[in-house]
From TrEMBL:
GO terms for molecular function: ATP binding; phosphomevalonate kinase activity. It is found in: Cytoplasm, Cytosol. The lineage of its organism: Eukaryota, Metazoa, Ecdysozoa, Nematoda, Chromadorea. It comes from Caenorhabditis tropicalis. One of its GO terms (cellular component) is cytosol. This is Phosphomevalonate kinase.
Length: 188
Protein backbone atom coordinates (compact mmCIF):
# COMPACT_ATOMS: atom_id res chain seq x y z
CA UNK A 1 0.00 0.00 0.00
CA UNK A 2 1.44 3.43 -0.93
CA UNK A 3 2.73 5.54 1.95
CA UNK A 4 1.79 8.67 0.05
CA UNK A 5 -0.43 9.46 -2.93
CA UNK A 6 0.29 12.72 -4.73
CA UNK A 7 -2.98 13.70 -6.39
CA UNK A 8 -2.34 16.30 -9.08
CA UNK A 9 -4.94 18.53 -10.71
CA UNK A 10 -4.81 21.59 -12.95
CA UNK A 11 -6.37 23.17 -15.99
CA UNK A 12 -5.56 21.93 -19.49
CA UNK A 13 -1.93 22.64 -20.45
CA UNK A 14 -1.11 23.89 -16.96
CA UNK A 15 1.76 21.41 -17.01
CA UNK A 16 0.45 18.46 -15.00
CA UNK A 17 2.52 15.90 -16.93
CA UNK A 18 5.56 18.17 -17.03
CA UNK A 19 5.52 18.74 -13.25
CA UNK A 20 4.72 15.07 -12.57
CA UNK A 21 7.86 14.11 -14.48
CA UNK A 22 9.99 16.57 -12.49
CA UNK A 23 8.59 15.37 -9.16
CA UNK A 24 9.14 11.75 -10.15
CA UNK A 25 12.75 12.42 -11.21
CA UNK A 26 13.50 14.31 -8.00
CA UNK A 27 12.02 11.51 -5.85
CA UNK A 28 13.92 8.84 -7.80
CA UNK A 29 17.17 10.74 -7.19
CA UNK A 30 16.40 10.43 -3.49
CA UNK A 31 15.89 6.66 -3.86
CA UNK A 32 12.14 6.83 -3.33
CA UNK A 33 10.17 4.02 -4.97
CA UNK A 34 7.69 6.03 -7.05
CA UNK A 35 5.14 5.26 -9.78
CA UNK A 36 3.00 7.49 -11.95
CA UNK A 37 -0.54 6.61 -12.98
CA UNK A 38 -3.31 8.36 -14.92
CA UNK A 39 -7.03 8.00 -14.27
CA UNK A 40 -7.86 8.60 -17.94
CA UNK A 41 -5.38 5.88 -18.96
CA UNK A 42 -7.17 3.49 -16.66
CA UNK A 43 -10.50 4.40 -18.33
CA UNK A 44 -8.98 3.86 -21.78
CA UNK A 45 -7.49 0.52 -20.77
CA UNK A 46 -10.84 -0.78 -19.52
CA UNK A 47 -12.68 0.55 -22.56
CA UNK A 48 -10.11 -1.13 -24.85
CA UNK A 49 -10.38 -4.45 -23.02
CA UNK A 50 -14.18 -4.53 -23.08
CA UNK A 51 -14.37 -3.59 -26.78
CA UNK A 52 -11.33 -5.52 -28.08
CA UNK A 53 -9.54 -2.28 -29.06
CA UNK A 54 -5.87 -1.31 -29.21
CA UNK A 55 -5.08 0.37 -25.87
CA UNK A 56 -1.75 1.81 -27.08
CA UNK A 57 -3.49 3.48 -30.02
CA UNK A 58 -6.14 4.95 -27.71
CA UNK A 59 -3.35 6.67 -25.79
CA UNK A 60 -2.22 8.61 -28.84
CA UNK A 61 -3.94 11.71 -30.24
CA UNK A 62 -4.42 10.17 -33.68
CA UNK A 63 -7.52 9.33 -35.71
CA UNK A 64 -7.89 5.93 -34.02
CA UNK A 65 -8.71 7.60 -30.69
CA UNK A 66 -10.97 10.13 -32.42
CA UNK A 67 -13.09 7.29 -33.88
CA UNK A 68 -13.96 6.07 -30.38
CA UNK A 69 -13.73 9.32 -28.41
CA UNK A 70 -17.46 10.08 -28.07
CA UNK A 71 -18.43 6.50 -27.24
CA UNK A 72 -15.58 6.22 -24.75
CA UNK A 73 -16.60 9.43 -22.94
CA UNK A 74 -20.23 8.32 -22.72
CA UNK A 75 -19.23 4.88 -21.48
CA UNK A 76 -16.93 6.45 -18.87
CA UNK A 77 -19.70 8.74 -17.60
CA UNK A 78 -22.11 5.82 -17.19
CA UNK A 79 -19.47 3.74 -15.43
CA UNK A 80 -18.73 6.62 -13.03
CA UNK A 81 -22.41 7.00 -12.13
CA UNK A 82 -22.42 3.37 -11.00
CA UNK A 83 -19.05 3.59 -9.21
CA UNK A 84 -17.37 7.01 -8.95
CA UNK A 85 -14.07 5.46 -7.80
CA UNK A 86 -13.84 2.81 -10.52
CA UNK A 87 -11.03 4.35 -12.59
CA UNK A 88 -9.15 5.73 -9.58
CA UNK A 89 -9.15 2.26 -8.02
CA UNK A 90 -7.94 0.45 -11.10
CA UNK A 91 -5.25 3.10 -11.68
CA UNK A 92 -3.75 2.75 -8.23
CA UNK A 93 -4.24 -1.02 -7.96
CA UNK A 94 -1.71 -1.46 -10.77
CA UNK A 95 1.07 0.10 -8.64
CA UNK A 96 -0.06 -0.74 -5.14
CA UNK A 97 3.45 -1.80 -4.03
CA UNK A 98 5.05 1.60 -4.74
CA UNK A 99 5.85 3.78 -1.73
CA UNK A 100 4.71 6.91 -3.56
CA UNK A 101 2.10 7.04 -6.31
CA UNK A 102 1.64 10.20 -8.34
CA UNK A 103 -1.80 10.45 -9.96
CA UNK A 104 -1.18 12.97 -12.71
CA UNK A 105 -4.72 13.81 -13.86
CA UNK A 106 -7.30 14.26 -11.10
CA UNK A 107 -10.26 16.15 -12.53
CA UNK A 108 -13.30 15.63 -10.34
CA UNK A 109 -14.10 16.07 -6.66
CA UNK A 110 -14.88 12.34 -6.56
CA UNK A 111 -11.26 11.64 -7.60
CA UNK A 112 -9.96 13.60 -4.61
CA UNK A 113 -12.59 12.03 -2.33
CA UNK A 114 -11.43 8.57 -3.41
CA UNK A 115 -7.73 9.12 -2.72
CA UNK A 116 -8.02 11.27 0.43
CA UNK A 117 -10.43 8.78 2.03
CA UNK A 118 -8.17 5.77 1.44
CA UNK A 119 -4.55 6.94 1.44
CA UNK A 120 -2.27 9.49 3.01
CA UNK A 121 -2.76 11.97 0.17
CA UNK A 122 -1.10 15.21 -0.80
CA UNK A 123 -3.37 17.18 -3.13
CA UNK A 124 -1.38 19.40 -5.50
CA UNK A 125 -2.78 22.04 -7.84
CA UNK A 126 -0.77 23.10 -10.87
CA UNK A 127 -1.47 26.74 -11.72
CA UNK A 128 -0.36 28.50 -14.89
CA UNK A 129 -1.39 31.76 -16.49
CA UNK A 130 -3.81 31.56 -19.41
CA UNK A 131 -1.16 33.11 -21.59
CA UNK A 132 1.36 30.38 -20.74
CA UNK A 133 -1.26 27.70 -21.26
CA UNK A 134 -2.08 29.13 -24.68
CA UNK A 135 1.58 29.12 -25.62
CA UNK A 136 1.66 25.44 -24.66
CA UNK A 137 -1.20 24.70 -27.06
CA UNK A 138 -4.35 25.45 -25.05
CA UNK A 139 -7.40 26.59 -26.97
CA UNK A 140 -10.75 27.00 -25.24
CA UNK A 141 -13.28 24.43 -26.45
CA UNK A 142 -16.89 24.96 -25.34
CA UNK A 143 -18.35 21.77 -23.93
CA UNK A 144 -14.92 20.59 -22.75
CA UNK A 145 -13.29 23.47 -20.89
CA UNK A 146 -16.50 24.52 -19.17
CA UNK A 147 -17.58 20.94 -18.29
CA UNK A 148 -17.35 19.31 -14.87
CA UNK A 149 -14.50 17.11 -16.10
CA UNK A 150 -12.32 20.24 -16.48
CA UNK A 151 -13.74 22.57 -13.81
CA UNK A 152 -14.71 20.11 -11.07
CA UNK A 153 -11.69 20.93 -8.90
CA UNK A 154 -11.33 24.66 -9.66
CA UNK A 155 -12.47 25.63 -6.15
CA UNK A 156 -10.89 22.73 -4.26
CA UNK A 157 -8.41 23.83 -1.59
CA UNK A 158 -5.36 21.75 -2.36
CA UNK A 159 -2.60 21.11 0.18
CA UNK A 160 -0.05 22.69 -2.15
CA UNK A 161 -0.10 24.88 -5.24
CA UNK A 162 2.67 24.72 -7.81
CA UNK A 163 2.98 27.86 -9.95
CA UNK A 164 4.18 26.67 -13.36
CA UNK A 165 4.23 30.00 -15.19
CA UNK A 166 6.93 32.05 -16.84
CA UNK A 167 9.06 33.78 -14.24
CA UNK A 168 8.24 31.37 -11.41
CA UNK A 169 11.02 29.32 -9.88
CA UNK A 170 9.66 25.85 -10.57
CA UNK A 171 12.64 23.86 -9.29
CA UNK A 172 12.51 25.41 -5.80
CA UNK A 173 8.81 24.56 -5.61
CA UNK A 174 9.52 20.99 -6.74
CA UNK A 175 12.18 20.67 -4.04
CA UNK A 176 9.66 21.78 -1.38
CA UNK A 177 7.03 19.31 -2.60
CA UNK A 178 9.56 16.49 -2.64
CA UNK A 179 10.56 17.20 0.99
CA UNK A 180 6.89 17.19 1.98
CA UNK A 181 6.29 13.87 0.19
CA UNK A 182 9.32 12.29 1.85
CA UNK A 183 8.18 13.47 5.28
CA UNK A 184 4.74 11.91 4.64
CA UNK A 185 6.32 8.59 3.63
CA UNK A 186 8.24 8.57 6.93
CA UNK A 187 5.04 9.09 8.94
CA UNK A 188 3.32 6.05 7.38
N1 LIG B 1 7.61 24.90 -17.08
C1 LIG B 1 7.61 24.48 -18.35
N2 LIG B 1 8.67 24.74 -19.16
C2 LIG B 1 8.68 24.32 -20.44
N3 LIG B 1 7.68 23.63 -21.04
C3 LIG B 1 6.60 23.34 -20.28
C4 LIG B 1 6.51 23.75 -18.91
N4 LIG B 1 5.33 23.30 -18.44
C5 LIG B 1 4.72 22.65 -19.44
N5 LIG B 1 5.47 22.67 -20.55
C6 LIG B 1 5.14 22.08 -21.88
O1 LIG B 1 3.81 22.47 -22.20
C7 LIG B 1 3.10 21.41 -22.81
C8 LIG B 1 1.87 21.06 -21.98
O2 LIG B 1 2.31 20.57 -20.72
P1 LIG B 1 1.70 19.24 -20.10
O3 LIG B 1 1.45 18.20 -21.14
O4 LIG B 1 2.52 18.86 -18.93
O5 LIG B 1 0.30 19.84 -19.61
P2 LIG B 1 -0.96 19.04 -19.03
O6 LIG B 1 -1.56 19.90 -17.96
O7 LIG B 1 -0.55 17.67 -18.62
O8 LIG B 1 -1.87 19.03 -20.32
P3 LIG B 1 -3.27 18.27 -20.61
O9 LIG B 1 -4.26 18.84 -19.65
O10 LIG B 1 -3.56 18.58 -22.02
O11 LIG B 1 -3.00 16.80 -20.35
C9 LIG B 1 4.08 20.24 -22.94
O12 LIG B 1 4.67 20.28 -24.21
C10 LIG B 1 5.14 20.55 -21.86
O13 LIG B 1 6.39 20.01 -22.16
Amino acid sequence: MPKCVVAISGKRKSGKDYCTKLIKEALTLKDVNVSVVGISNSLKEQFATINGLNYAELLTDGSYKEQFRKEMIEWGEKARIKDSGLFCRSAIDSVIDSDVVIVSDCRRSTDYEFFTSKYSTLTVRIEASENDRKQRGFQFVAGIDDAVSECGLDDYECDLVLYNSTGKDLQTQIDIIVLKIISLTKMN
